[in-house]
């Protein structure tokens, strides 16, 4: 199975309690949310109270051991509560307690699974990297599959000391000891009680029962966010150069919650425990490249835990998901920074020269810098099945030792064609397609993917000449400056957000295609000629790879602006993002080649150096999120579950978030289709500045801003404005423009204004 399909298989099934057949006395894992104001003062800690609560549920003898087995985790930060093994009757008893807030049945989630820093414009001795001392003293917590501590990316060369406020530790376990941590990797813990309670074993064949990474994903994401400089890193020669994270002086703490057991599962109770620990340890930034099913926020443990983290000033960055379709963004709660994936301006190629002198360049990741010279070409021109390398069509006697042409490849069957060539004993393959998503690990035979246009020339030669030959086929070329780039990766999940369509998601785009970062050296990355090839650095793709880029940028911004809230940091990243590619046209969708929209790229692609000095920010605090939740019409119990308090205030004004993007959802049968937004911006730029509103408005849409001039006479001063948007009833389904506030110092504070006309 390819890495793409593995990480995009995001089927987060809730373990339904099958009431009809299950024995009432059978235990299940539940996450129980409690109201801590009900804790009797006689209990010193919450855990004591949780244990006693569980003991009280036991009908027979209250054996301490039994209660020990029931309790998995006590949570103190993400929420007050615990996870435990309970029978249905115990659960219903517990739910009658006045202290009970909510029950979440255990659920299971999956992963969304160096040049990139340069692509982001981050240069060592200038801009944001200089101003932030490369993220010095900032701590990034990564919730993932663990870490390979010996990787050069986690060397603490040049690192500052562990910050005094840090409370985390490195745990002991299978092939892992606290001595493996250093001033770079300052924390490493693992959480598997929930997984084990569900009867899933962590077998030594498939994983390490410790923070050590078996999968490779966590080493990759954490080194992307904050890996140290590693010269000469490459993926079998491709993308060779110095690998470094976005914030190379930031500290890393790994919370392993995802396990590469044979079913590759992660339990919500474990993810919550990891997030709870990260908050308690004192991380500044949290990055998650995983997600669970689309759920309302009061049932979404990641959303609940993230709001708790935000309340403590921790920036929470999450991958948007790999479903590639509209209405599929994960982790879209408005307090989370939700990241989609874009391509880099880099391609990996092979060069093919035929005997007639025709030279063609095509995509390849074949991991050997070998040359194929003077090899016979095979083209099954008289048999369509052979020409398109259908399964079982090729004859070993005909193709043995030859370079096989497979024509009319569609994106979905290159892999099938490659397998057919390999099965029949072909020496190498030429595949013709304009859309190819073969993963690096799929290049198990020498293969080149050529565009249709070039393919037609190859076919012409192969049809006309006899005794056709390949003069040379060479691999391991890395090309920079690819145009257009960035593009929205074909797999990147698109808005509107399935839970709250009125908030534009994803927020931003960051590099997520063929990202080079640390990998695990103990397990083969791919197989070539029946040999496992291993690598310290690998090219991986996914929104999983995009999120840690933004976590790194957030760390750099945090180092420069310690006082900024998570919303301010996100605002700075969003309002300075760009929506044009390096051909100076709108960023395109990799899938269709057509211009993408903010539903695909949010506010645009991140532009870190600009984010350092955004001019204005759209700030928000927890009260704003509470007002937003009030507006969703949640009942008291549901409110309590998300905001983890028993008292709150909802004003009567229409709930609207001070979000740095604008999203209106209209029904085209209504007339007029208009909406007013009110926003407040805070001056974080020069003391006195005057901003003018500039609007970019397409036909069929009208946008007005009142007032259209904002005058600031001091830093941190706030000014409000109203933006009105109106859309014609015959406008396209998705129509958008931009508002940009521009001052005399050329700060450009840009926001997409999107309307969906259903
Ligand atoms: C650390 O873990 C290993 C493997 O589980 C174990 O053999 C060893 O005794 C542990 N060491 C300490 C100090 O706990
Ligand atoms: C492949 O596509 C070309 C151009 O569309 C067409 O002429 C040719 O017949 C196709 N070949 C097969 C085997 O379907
Ligand atoms: C290839 O072409 C040469 C010269 O045109 C001819 O002599 C030979 O018979 C051809 N071979 C085949 C297999 O058609
Ligand atoms: C979006 O997805 C949600 C959840 O899957 C679904 O309930 C909703 O109907 C979808 N909306 C649209 C417009 O497809
Ligand atoms: C739009 O409004 C019409 C009339 O009120 C209604 O019948 C229709 O279902 C609405 N469409 C959507 C997509 O909500
Ligand atoms: C928006 O505000 C303007 C000016 O206050 C008002 O005239 C208009 O009715 C409002 N539109 C909506 C849709 O609320």
UniProtKB/TrEMBL annotation:
<keyword id="KW-0325">Glycoprotein</keyword>
<keyword id="KW-0068">Autocatalytic cleavage</keyword>
<dbReference type="InterPro" id="IPR045051">
    <property type="entry name" value="SBT"/>
</dbReference>
<dbReference type="GO" id="GO:0009609">
    <property type="term" value="P:response to symbiotic bacterium"/>
</dbReference>
<dbReference type="InterPro" id="IPR037045">
    <property type="entry name" value="S8pro/Inhibitor_I9_sf"/>
</dbReference>
<dbReference type="Pfam" id="PF05922">
    <property type="entry name" value="Inhibitor_I9"/>
</dbReference>
<keyword id="KW-0720">Serine protease</keyword>
<protein>
    <submittedName>
        <fullName>Putative tripeptidyl-peptidase II</fullName>
        <ecNumber>3.4.14.10</ecNumber>
    </submittedName>
</protein>
<feature type="domain" description="Inhibitor I9">
    <location>
        <begin position="29"/>
        <end position="108"/>
    </location>
</feature>
<feature type="domain" description="Subtilisin-like protease fibronectin type-III">
    <location>
        <begin position="656"/>
        <end position="754"/>
    </location>
</feature>
<dbReference type="GO" id="GO:0004252">
    <property type="term" value="F:serine-type endopeptidase activity"/>
</dbReference>
<feature type="active site" description="Charge relay system">
    <location>
        <position position="144"/>
    </location>
</feature>
<keyword id="KW-0378">Hydrolase</keyword>
<dbReference type="InterPro" id="IPR015500">
    <property type="entry name" value="Peptidase_S8_subtilisin-rel"/>
</dbReference>
<dbReference type="InterPro" id="IPR034197">
    <property type="entry name" value="Peptidases_S8_3"/>
</dbReference>
<feature type="active site" description="Charge relay system">
    <location>
        <position position="217"/>
    </location>
</feature>
<comment type="similarity">
    <text>Belongs to the peptidase S8 family.</text>
</comment>
<keyword id="KW-0964">Secreted</keyword>
<feature type="active site" description="Charge relay system">
    <location>
        <position position="544"/>
    </location>
</feature>
<dbReference type="Pfam" id="PF17766">
    <property type="entry name" value="fn3_6"/>
</dbReference>
<keyword id="KW-0865">Zymogen</keyword>
<dbReference type="GO" id="GO:0008240">
    <property type="term" value="F:tripeptidyl-peptidase activity"/>
</dbReference>
<dbReference type="InterPro" id="IPR041469">
    <property type="entry name" value="Subtilisin-like_FN3"/>
</dbReference>
<dbReference type="InterPro" id="IPR023828">
    <property type="entry name" value="Peptidase_S8_Ser-AS"/>
</dbReference>
<keyword id="KW-0645">Protease</keyword>
<feature type="signal peptide">
    <location>
        <begin position="1"/>
        <end position="24"/>
    </location>
</feature>
<dbReference type="InterPro" id="IPR036852">
    <property type="entry name" value="Peptidase_S8/S53_dom_sf"/>
</dbReference>
<dbReference type="GO" id="GO:0006508">
    <property type="term" value="P:proteolysis"/>
</dbReference>
<dbReference type="GO" id="GO:0005576">
    <property type="term" value="C:extracellular region"/>
</dbReference>
<dbReference type="InterPro" id="IPR000209">
    <property type="entry name" value="Peptidase_S8/S53_dom"/>
</dbReference>
<dbReference type="InterPro" id="IPR010259">
    <property type="entry name" value="S8pro/Inhibitor_I9"/>
</dbReference>
<keyword id="KW-0732">Signal</keyword>
<dbReference type="Pfam" id="PF00082">
    <property type="entry name" value="Peptidase_S8"/>
</dbReference>
<feature type="domain" description="Peptidase S8/S53">
    <location>
        <begin position="135"/>
        <end position="583"/>
    </location>
</feature>
